[in-house]
Design goal:
Blueprint lengths: L10 H16 L7 H20 L8 H19 L5 H17 L9 H20 L12 H9 L3 H5 L1 H20 L10 H20 L4 H10 L4
């Protein structure tokens, strides 16, 4: 049985929300304080959660909800104490983390090796996001965003989910336009386009890894019944 009740999480939409939110948080008005940015951070966090858990049309189990929300909540005090933008950095891997948790069922327990791989990819994602400012090669990831949902329209199963397909195409285009129209602050040595590109590349990399993890319960059901249900 699919742990999301047969409906797939909107993982790509969650990545688009992350890229847009992180770009706006990084390049918001200079007079806005960290505390004033907090509502935007919370809204982005919850919207990503809706993209991952919402398609199941039921509230996630308590342990999934706590595991999803707790890391972000614990990192907020670091930002409020001016100890770094760790809460925003956590958004890079939030889509992958949510997808990993959405598959956490009694039949499919989270394995230590999966958590270690996620943490390793999280570190790699932060490195990509940080050093893309200096070597903006990974900025090309931003322009993959509109291509991915348009390419997926070739599959009838994806076209049948018309609401998801339309939302993801619109979100992807909006993120690219947003990164292009936000002005680069005076004196800044990096642009919103560069940050958005690094975020897109890191987010897509982690989400692709999490999406590719096999479901143990699905494998068992396939062996028993000859089909995945």
């Amino acid at each position: 049985m699919n742990p999301t009740g047969g409906r797939q999480p909107w993982t790509f939409a969650a990545v688009c929300v992350m890229v847009a939110a992180l770009t706006l948080l990084m390049f918001g008005p200079p007079w806005v304080s960290v505390i004033e940015l907090l509502p935007g951070y919370v809204a982005a966090y919850l919207l990503i959660g809706v993209c991952i858990f919402g398609p199941a049309r039921k509230l996630p189990p308590l342990r999934q909800a706590v595991a999803f929300l707790l890391p972000g909540a614990l990192l907020v005090p670091l930002a409020l104490l001016n100890l770094g933008f760790w809460a925003g950095g956590w958004l890079l891997g939030l889509s992958a983390w949510g997808l990993l948790l959405s598959r956490w069922t009694p039949e499919d327990q989270l394995k230590p090796v999966q958590l270690l791989k996620f943490l390793g990819l999280m570190v790699l994602g932060l490195v990509i996001f940080t050093f893309n400012v200096i070597y903006p090669v990974c900025s090309l990831g931003l322009f993959l965003l509109p291509i991915i949902p348009l390419a997926r329209l070739a599959y009838s199963e994806y076209r049948a989910r018309i609401l998801q397909a339309a939302a993801e195409v619109l979100l992807a285009i909006t993120v690219v336009v947003l990164a292009l129209v936000i002005p680069t602050p005076e004196g800044s040595w990096s642009s919103p386009l560069t940050y958005a590109g690094g975020a897109a590349t890191a987010g897509l990399m982690m989400a692709y890894w999490a999406w590719g993890l096999p479901l143990r319960s699905s494998r068992l059901r396939q062996l028993n019944n000859g089909a995945v249900v």
